[in-house]
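Researcher: Re-running this chain for the archive, since the previous output was lost when a drive failed. Same request as before.
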Amino acid sequence: MKLVETWIPVATVVGTHGLHGVLKVLPWVANPDWLEWFEARAARKKDPKASALTIQLQPEPTEDSEATVFSISRWELVAPKKLRLTLPEITTRVAAERWRHATLRVPAQAIADLSSPHTYNPWLMVGYQAILKNATTPIGFVDEIATSGDMLFLQIAAPVDSPKAGRTWLIPLSPKIVPSVQMASQTVWLDHLDGFFDD
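Model: Regenerated C-alpha cells:
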C-alpha cells in the first residue's frame, strides 16, 4: 500500500456499532501510539491555533474508491486492539457500512517515531526479512499480507537459494509471535515458533 502524502495507514474498519454510524476499528498494533496524540490534541481543542482532529478513510479498491477525510467527535478504545470511532459526518448504520474494510489513516505527525518496534504499517512489510529470535540469518521474507476476519497474517517465503525454496508459512501478526518490526532495517523478528519451520 502506498502512503498518501502525510497520511499513514494504521488500522482497518471491521464493522459498525449501534444504529448511529459508530465505526468498529481494528488497529494494527495494540494500544496504538497515535491515540495518545489524539488525546493530547483533544486537550488543546479550545486553543484557536489547534486544528481539528481528522482521519482519512480509504475504501476497498473500486472504480470510485477515493479516500475521504473525516473529523472525529469521539473515540473509545474498548480493548487493546478494539476501537470505536464516532464521526459527525456518518450518522446512520447504513452510511457506516459503506466503510467496512476501509483502511484508516492518521496524520503523519500522529506517529512520533516510525522506527519504533511498536509502530509499523503491516502493508509496507512485503519484502522484509523474517528472523527468528536469537538467530542471525533470515528464515525467509514476507511476500504477502493476508487477512482472515479481523486477523492479519504474514506469509513468509523461504529464500530462493535455501533447501526450503518454494515453501511458504502463514504467521499470525500478533505481538507474541511478532514482538518487533524494525522499519529501518526492514526486519520482522519472530518468537514462540520453535519447530514451526522444521520439515
